[in-house]
Amino acid sequence: MTGGHVRTEHVRTELRGALGVIVLDRQPALNALTHEMVLGVADALRQWADDARVERVAITGAGERALCAGGDVVSLVDDIRATGGEGAGRFWRDEYALNAAIARYPKPIVAIQHGIVLGGGVGLSGHASHRVVTDSTRIGFPEVTIGFVPDVGATWLLTRQPGELGTRAALTGDHFGAADAILLGLADTYVPERRLPELLAALEAAEPDEAIGRFAAEPPAGRLEGERAVVDEALAGDDVTGALERLDASGPEGQAIAATIRKRSPFAVSVTLAALRRARGLPSLEAALVEEYRVSRATTLQPDFAEGVRAQLIDKDRAPKWRPSSLAGVTPAMVEASFAAPPEGDLQLPAVTEHEEHA
Length: 359
Hints:
The chain has one domain (about 5-335): 2-enoyl-CoA Hydratase, Chain A, domain 1. Helices cover about 45% and strands about 10% of the residues. It is built from 16 helices and 11 strands. The protein has helices at about 35-50, 75-85, 85-105, 120-125, 155, 165-170, 180-185, 195-205, 210-215, 225-235, 240-250, 250-265, 265-280, 285-300, 305-315, 330-335, and strands at about 5-10, 10-15, 20-25, 55-60, 65-70, 110-115, 115-120, 130-135, 140, 175, 190. α6 (about 165-170) runs antiparallel to α13 (about 265-280) and α10 crosses α11. The longest helix is centred in the N-terminal third of the chain and has 18 residues, at about 85-105.
């Protein structure tokens, strides 16, 4: 870093008054994260932590379409085929360490969750001290659509709120707008899109609570609050098959949710529910990330990950051939094996000394 700037491809940083700004700039890929981008963001945060000029940080995405569409999963599939996932493991170790560092950062971080914010994009923004959604926000965890399981601290974030709306978000892979993002515990405040430039300008001199308070408004109504009664009853428990039966019996709203879940990888859906239930009993974000690292390493070696990425992102035929093809083929032993420590050992993160996660 020279003069407050990091020179990493696809990550731009600058100082604006007392505000350090990190801009993800890989617009053709909707600012999807490469390993180099993860390291660039981590480097900027590490250096700004001790820089007296920087009193607060903002994370945003270049262009109007996305903060970040997640990790570059096509490259992860290539690595898994070539090395058995050694490179993918290195990527996740650095990415998850960054997620934890954002949650523990000694200065306020304001994440601007505009446009598409999926998977790894939530990992960069959902653990920030101040999380701002807007009119264009489309946030979610689509991992089950590619035979993967929500990670980057998703199991922690989605289990901090009462009820089962987080379970609904994880099992369907749906995207949500501003009000629902706040209800899910993935965001804090809605600011109208047209006011975002003013917000960033205000942050150059004002503390985040004051600056955000100037522009905060009530978000347009979402859909999840109206689903809560059905979802909370149907998705309670540890069994996906039983949950689907309860959704089917609950009426058209529940049947639509069940139909979406049935399109997802049966294996990934089963492991996802198990991961969420385990996360509810964990003591910290770091503990959840350690478990997610185990699951990420294990599930991406199964056939559904490569097949899901092929169907959704490479051939784009949207017709994956899942293996097993139904929930009946997913055994408890298959799910349990996804939580075993990987050959290289568990993810190592700094010890937790205090708990400041969003509740």
